[in-house]
Amino acid sequence: MNLLNGDDFWQFACQLYSEDGMQARLLDYQNQQGKNVNLCLLLYYLDSLNLTINKAQLNKLEQCISELDQQVLTPLRATRAYLKANQTTISDYAAIRKDLLSAELKLEKQQQQLLITTINSFALTLCSTPSNTKLYL
């Protein structure tokens, strides 16, 4: 099987994320269930390609992104939430928010690349009815 391409995944993820209701659903997975949005997007991507992974592979995917999530992305999201809640007392809030969102987006893309690099080390299985997202959620 050909290796998965990070740019193709990024385009797929951006398209899926923009579909009606998908952003809210993914953020609910993140905020209510502690799931990783990029991992969800990757699993939807694999489903769309009729590729399936097993539980051990899913665990490796979770491990490959956990440090970036815990050390960088989660604190960045908490910072944005704090600033939003206190925006009336923060001068230049709009510019700061824009810069933080830009940094977060770059980090999300980096996290997606980690996922692609990791998944490209797996032997993926073709499956006519993959359920990778179900395995994770």
Briefly characterize the structure:
By secondary structure, the chain is an all-alpha fold. Helix content is 73%, strand content 3%.
Order of helices and strands: HHHEHHEH
For the record, the count of structural domains works out to: 1
> Taking strands numbered 1, 2, ... along the chain, how are they ordered across the largest sheet?
1-2
Strand content: under 5%
Number of helices: 6
Low-confidence stretches: none
- C-alpha-based Rg, rounded: 16 Å
- The chain-level mean pLDDT equals 94
What is the CA–CA distance across the termini? 26 Å
| Secondary structure tally: strands | 2
Going by helix content, strand content and strand pairing, the class is mainly alpha
Helix content class: over 70%
Describe the largest sheet.
2 strands, antiparallel
Shape descriptor: elongated
List the helices and strands and how they pair.
Blueprint: H1 6-18, H2 22-33, H3 37-48, E1 51-52, H4 55-85, H5 93-119, E2 125-126, H6 132-136
Antiparallel strand pairs: 1-2
InterPro entries: CHP02444
Protein name: TIGR02444 family protein
Organism: Pseudoalteromonas haloplanktis
